[in-house]
């Protein structure tokens, strides 16, 4: 009886052993943590690229400011004695170092993550992450961040233009009322 039972079960046992690798491949990976989803979405959105771009722009702004300030001194800057040139260079170095410290990279990434994940459940993050790994989702994540940055840049430019124009008008009015400053 044992042999007949073994013969009857052998094909079923072979079938089970043959399908075992397929069953293994169907096993889902362990679920990601909320932090892992956020990190993955941060990468999909291009947050580190945006932070690097902001750092580069900050450095470029710093160099423009140096040139603007130096040009206000005109020829006097070209004819400084060696000791004063060294002091100017030291002041320039201090300015460059201070202007580079405009923001903390980890704090910037954390600010994005807090804003992005506000009011999202873990299940929401999982669905968004799955979408972000599709071609359209990846583009949507990157474009969403770029669109927000473009809007912010536009608003800052407009605000700056309006403020500059208003300041110029104010200065002109004060000159007309009080006279040119000494």
Please provide a brief summary of the model:
The chain starts with a helix and ends with a helix.
Oligomeric nature of the chains: single chain
Strand share of the residues? under 5%
Percent helix, as a range, is: over 70%
Low-confidence stretches: 13-17
Can you count the helices?
8
Structural class: mainly alpha
Mean pLDDT reading: 81
- Based on CA atoms alone, the radius of gyration comes out at 31 Å
Order of helices and strands: HHHHHHHH
How many DSSP-defined strands?
0
Distance between the termini: 117 Å
Largest sheet geometry: none
Shape: elongated
Number of structurally distinct domains: 1
Topology, pairings included?
Blueprint: H1 2-26, H2 34-45, H3 47-72, H4 75-78, H5 82-100, H6 105-117, H7 122-132, H8 135-178
Structural notes for this entry:
- This protein is mostly helical.
- It has one domain.
- The protein is 85% helix and 0% strand.
- It contains 8 helices and no strands.
- The chain has helices at residues 2-26, 34-45, 47-72, 75-78, 82-100, 105-117, 122-132, 135-178.
- Helix 3 packs antiparallel against helix 5 (82-100) and helix 7 crosses helix 8 (135-178).
- The model is unreliable at 13-17 (pLDDT under 50).
Task: Give descriptors for this structure.
182 residues; mainly alpha; 8 helices; single chain
